[in-house]
Amino acid sequence: MKEEKIIKESIQQVRDVPVIAEYDVVVCGGGPSGFIAAIAAARGGAKVALIERLGFLGGMATASLVAPISVFNYNERRVIDGIPWEFIERLIEIGGAREEKPIGNITFAPEKYKLIAQRMVLEAGVDLYFHSYLTGHKKEGNRISHIIIDNKNGAEAIAGKYFIDCTGDADLSYQAGVEMQPMSSELQPATLIFMLGGVDTDSLPMIRHSKQGVNYHDLDMRKILEDIGSEGKLPGYGGPWYCGVMDNGMVLVNMTRTYANMADNRQATRTECNLREDVFTFLELLKKNVLAFKHAHLIMTAPQTGTRETRRIKGVYTLQGEEYIEARDFPDSISRGCHPVDIHSADSTNQRCQFLKDAAFVPYRCLIAPDFPNLLVGGRAFSADGVSSASVRVQASVMGLGQAAGAAAALCVSSGADVDKVDITKLRSTLMEHGANLTN
Ligand SMILES: Cc1cc2nc3c(=O)[nH]c(=O)nc-3n(C[C@H](O)[C@H](O)[C@H](O)COP(=O)(O)OP(=O)(O)OC[C@H]3O[C@@H](n4cnc5c(N)ncnc54)[C@H](O)[C@@H]3O)c2cc1C
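Above are the sequence and the flavin-adenine dinucleotide SMILES. Below is the predicted complex in structure-token form.
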């Protein structure tokens, strides 16, 4: 996973950064893991800030139009529960989501997702900092004491007792010097999802994961793409998968793909430009070859290309694929996963799925790093190998990690403990009080 940093020279910059606020818990990143972490910490009694570089919550779900939200159930059994499921219920209540049984995949309306996420965060008493990019930190000994955010006010510092990194790319952990997992060059691909209107949604084969082992991409279109691809040049693609947004006639298309390390700005910039070109190529092919798309028009490309995989921390423990697939339980299990190991290839059209023996477990030790006594990591940057993370990375399970990180941070605030000394029995019982399912 190369970063393309060409350093011509270094300049020194000394600046006074005003400290604008102090919190018990500062959560960086307002994606599925981050906004749930902030709610969990606030409900645990902590004074919480949530930092988000965009002007809305939801991360990949809303900024990259990644749908559906996968998955809450193992077969018929709800496995990811508590605050994440409360969020889904609130969405369903306003007509913003629909559950697909028995797996518990959620089709949702992105704008209603943003609304309910922000309502729940504000109701919990969390202070939101939108349009604020985490750009730095200050340490006192091995404790992070402040983060630096940059926004229209300039650079600002926020003091905190505990920090939760939910940036997806482990931005805070990386900047603070946490060791990262060695990355192979085979990162899962980046994808720019696009939204179409004017679609005959009733006749379109929508994505579903309702049966294990069945892949719901558009098989007919796939065959056409394979034929065209074998004749000449076609941009990289996967699927294609189509997902509704709760409105008739509108659909999200997941099919572009390319290799990119999206945690490197040069690669991310090139990727955005290239995949935008590809969207227009695929749109014409879809209109020509799929009857349901005959009158389709492009509403929008996602504001940001979706990132499946970048940095992950090397935590106190690294979750291994075999034990995860076997559904091994741990004394410090704090969350679950039930999506298959789902690995997309960056240099081909392939997707490799491996199904779990049962609903799996994630231990608390994967959310903390050695010698970082006040840092937790929620979301896809947690400490896992490429196999287990390829399952846990989906939205329901990262919400579960957020819930655990937030609850743990709140307990640390009340006891004053370092994150590696948290009372695990109390943490598990607190999570179960939130509604989490940590038993079979
Ligand atoms: C193409 C694609 C298809 C997928 N398909 C599915 C699917 O079908 N079902 C499913 O459930 N999941 C799917 N996923 C996976 C899922 O969307 C992500 O793994 C999940 O959103 C990760 O959640 P997160 O909270 O860890 O990070 P993110 O969702 O990435 O959220 C991180 C948040 O942090 C913010 N942030 C990042 N850096 C900074 C910074 N420096 N300062 C301030 N804010 C920052 C971001 O703006 C964002 O809001 C897919 C992903 C992709 C890319």
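The two ends are 38 Å apart (CA to CA).
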